[in-house]
Write a structure and sequence with these properties.
Length: about 425
């Protein structure tokens, strides 16, 4: 039976719908904490999330990308599932160690552990998304992300309005996400769709070979994504240490606005990965370059528009969404949007490098960017304040864009 794949435009629209709904919900939680709680509680939530998220990203090893680009069905779904279970348990171990070590306050530790429950549910859903994305069933993923967003937002708002704490927001988020994973994602994946076959769990066979092979393939990719997330979080750690939780709350509120642009760009980037992988596998380099060029153009336009909006109406936007206190940091908003513009371009270029499975290069580059952002942040934030955080990210991402583009050109011309 011939399966007709949906167009990239249709896939991008569904992905944009899902990512957009999810991003709006996360943005809504930030606004809710700022309005009904305090900037200090918002800073506490941002700190806990900035620790838990990288831990799960590192443990997850970005299996979804590995599944999506596995064109020869080298591994079974059960192999990926066993690897993901080990990863989630590892993330919990990391989280418990940090929460009980005294490195964070007791309230932050409690928020971390509750958020770990939410991230566990999201991790298993992400594994199911990998199966769906491989067959370009982005509609189902988009709907799931939208439901994730709505459930998490409603739960968080209910608890924040009642308890007025970051811990309350975490409880609401966890309850909503666990419910979606159990009652929507699992039935959808194991029953199958019109374009995507149902997941069949083979008879368990104990063998370390598939797990070892997946680990070797996924480790560079997992480390790359972990470091990419750390690129955004390192300045937050520095702000918390040098300026305090309230300052981190202000920065987290401003930085969250760039989620709007990320929604569009990530939709384009995620949608093109399987198609780029197929084109590269077939050595259709001309079509590969055309598709990549178009996605980068979209990312560039979104980034430029974001910067122009921040320059023209940054202060009024911050006043309406948050408060006069946050609006005083208009220059931080502009700098954040400049950094976001380069991040958008990097997302598309990075997806192309992922599609061709050039994982070791990504890892080397990610380490360089991590060191660069750390140095710039440590030197800048204590001396120049909040504005140094987005500036350090933007400067590092300029170099990253150049390095990614140069590497891709080298691959296609070898």
């Amino acid at each position: 039976m011939t399966i007709h794949l949906p167009s990239l435009r249709v896939n991008a629209i569904w992905t944009m719908f899902g990512n957009g709904s999810f991003a709006v919900s996360q943005f809504g939680i930030i606004i809710c904490l700022a309005k009904f709680s305090s900037l200090e509680q918002l800073g506490l939530f941002a700190l806990a999330l900035s620790i838990v998220s990288p831990a799960f990203i590192l443990a997850n090893m970005q299996l979804r990308a590995l599944q999506t680009t596995d064109m020869t069905n080298e591994f079974r779904f059960s192999d990926y599932l066993k690897f993901r279970i080990v990863g989630v348990l590892s993330a919990w171990f990391i989280g418990i160690c940090i929460a009980s070590s005294g490195l964070v306050s007791a309230p932050a530790g409690k928020v971390m552990l509750v958020l770990a429950v939410a991230k566990s549910a999201e991790s298993f859903s992400d594994l199911l998304y990998g199966h769906l994305q491989k067959h370009e069933s982005m509609r189902e993923i988009g709907i799931s992300r939208a439901i994730y967003g709505a459930a998490g937002f409603l739960g968080a708002v209910l608890f924040v309005v009642t308890l007025k704490t970051a811990e309350g927001a975490a409880y609401g988020l966890a309850i909503g996400w666990v419910a979606v994973a159990l009652f929507y994602d699992m039935p959808k994946a194991f029953l199958g769709t019109s374009r995507c076959p149902a997941i069949v769990l083979e008879k368990p066979v104990f063998s370390m070979f598939p797990l070892q092979t997946i680990f070797k393939l996924a480790l560079p990719l997992g480390l790359v994504l972990f470091l990419n997330v750390m690129h955004q979080n390192i300045p937050r750690y520095i702000i918390e240490y040098a300026l305090g939780s309230s300052a981190l709350g202000v920065y987290a509120a401003i930085a969250s606005i760039s989620l709007a642009g990320s929604t569009i760009v990530n939709a384009v980037a995620q949608t093109t990965v399987p198609r780029l992988a197929s084109l590269y596998h077939d050595r259709n380099y001309l079509s590969f370059q055309t598709l990549l060029r178009n996605s980068v153009r979209v990312a560039s336009v979104v980034g430029v528009v974001g910067v122009l909006i921040a320059i023209a109406a940054g202060r009024p936007i911050l006043e309406v969404i948050y408060s006069d206190i946050v609006a005083q940091h208009e220059i931080v908003f502009i700098a954040s949007m400049v950094g976001a513009a380069f991040l958008f371009v990097n997302s598309c270029l990075g997806s192309a490098v992922t599609a061709v499975r050039s994982f070791n290069f990504q890892l080397t580059l990610a380490v360089k960017i991590t060191v660069l952002i750390s140095i710039l942040g440590l030197l800048g934030v204590p001396r120049f304040g909040l504005v140094a955080a987005p500036c350090s990210i933007a400067l590092a991402l300029v170099y990253k864009s150049y390095a990614l583009r140069k590497h891709i050109d080298g691959l296609l011309h070898d």
